[in-house]
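In the laboratory, one determines a bound structure by crystallizing the protein with its ligand and collecting diffraction data. In a computational setting the workflow is compressed into a single prediction: the sequence and the ligand go in, and a structural description comes out. We illustrate the idea with flavin-adenine dinucleotide.
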Amino acid sequence: MKIIIIGGVAGGASAATRLRRQNENNEIIMFERGEYISFANCGLPYHIGETIKERDNLLVQTVKGMKDRFNIDVRTKNEVLKIIPSEKKLLVKDLNKNEIYEESYDKLLLSPGAEAFIPPIPGVHSKNIFSLRNMSDMDKIKGKVDSGIKKAVVIGAGFIGLEIAENLIERDIKVSIIEKANQVLAPVDFEIAAQVHEHIKEYNCELYLEDGVKEFIDIGDKTKAILESGKEIIADLIIMAIGVKPENKLALEAGLDIGVTGGIKVNHFLETSNPDIYAVGDAIEVKHLINNKEVLIPLAWPANRQGRIVADTILGIRKKEYKGSLGTSILKAFELTVSATGLNEKILNRNNIPYLVATVNRNDHASYYPGATPLTLKLIFSENGDIYGAQAIGYKGVDKRIDIISTAIKGNLKVWDLQEIEVAYAPPYNSAKDPVNIIGYVAENMINREVETFRY
Ligand code: FAD
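The predicted complex, in structure-token form:
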């Protein structure tokens, strides 16, 4: 069988290696239009900031490695231009030779990812405006940073925007962040985001909320961002980080079904509307695990998981369902860590789903043991004990609390089951009652009307 994969990074590379491990005889070709495969997208901001010093450390797997170890025919700088499903073939452009050729397939996997959303703002194509998706974007941004620039503007305060802002500040660049919403980080609710607002200001980072950019004007080697509020900021470097949209062009032109969110429509087995074409990663629409609604979850865990299980489906070994995503996410914002899983209040309100909220403020470990730091944990749940989501912010131990709750949701645990999670405890690591246990007690008390709570 001849299997072709479009996209050689998270979902594509995971699928390719699993396909080979499961079968030594199939022909596997992986097309990647960029220069590299299997690079660590998530590490890109940290090389700009020089926390990750060696650029090569971002290259998790190479073309040679894929060939030598897995016998996979990897064709970098080869862009698939068109899928012709009726003939089961592709048109591919070899960007090295500038030549177009055809390739046939028996089974085709799409993992083309997402592209940065660039709004049609006048002046947005200035030479000083960049987005960060791949190694080449990173090289360009780092090149500018290394030239000794002093001022940057980051448009968009999502995960990538904040990571870039932090890393630019690490390089002694003054940063202004512009965000259209009234808060940073859409996956968390306002009171959690508000702690980030205060924190980033301590690092001399300007934050403009509820404001957008009206126009960019180049002035010599700098660019002026004119905001909707009238404020003007002149910078050496502008990063557009207002979000991504699924790379659905190939699928759309091939007549595959596209979902309501713009992602490629797949079923639980990651099969598209064409029986020989599969799709994974940022490019697809998935069901949210809590409310079964169609969503885009452009994160690395789903892409890797989907890449692995789709390989087995393609090979017909066993069909494993991708049950849906929770959107579990985490961010380092200077000293703070912010993390979330499941649905937040904004989404529940938008969908008219009633809910209760419990919030506890504890320490990450026993307060009498040196170095304890505050941690806020918020749980959102239903009157019958279903867990809808959780958010946490603090200096240490945030990840483990959210990971426990995400596991609890996957295991269909109820809020009172959180009381029973037997955690590892010694004073340097925890308290004998973990914040997750405590929030389980609070939630049950609320459901049983044993305590009265108020929110403002
Ligand atoms: P990608 O990994 O983006 O791979 C798609 C590849 O397909 C691209 O290399 C593209 O060049 C190629 N391609 C597209 N079209 C074609 C074509 N026609 N022909 C040939 N090749 C094509 N996620 C997290 O969970 N945590 C993080 O901390 C995190 N940080 C991130 C930081 C940055 C800066 C970025 C950019 C992303 C980050 N992500 C993070 C998101 C995560 O990287 C993605 O969710 C994941 O890589 C998606 O995998 P994918 O296979 O769908 O797409």
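The chain has a mean pLDDT of 97. Keep in mind that any predicted model is a hypothesis to be tested, not a measurement.
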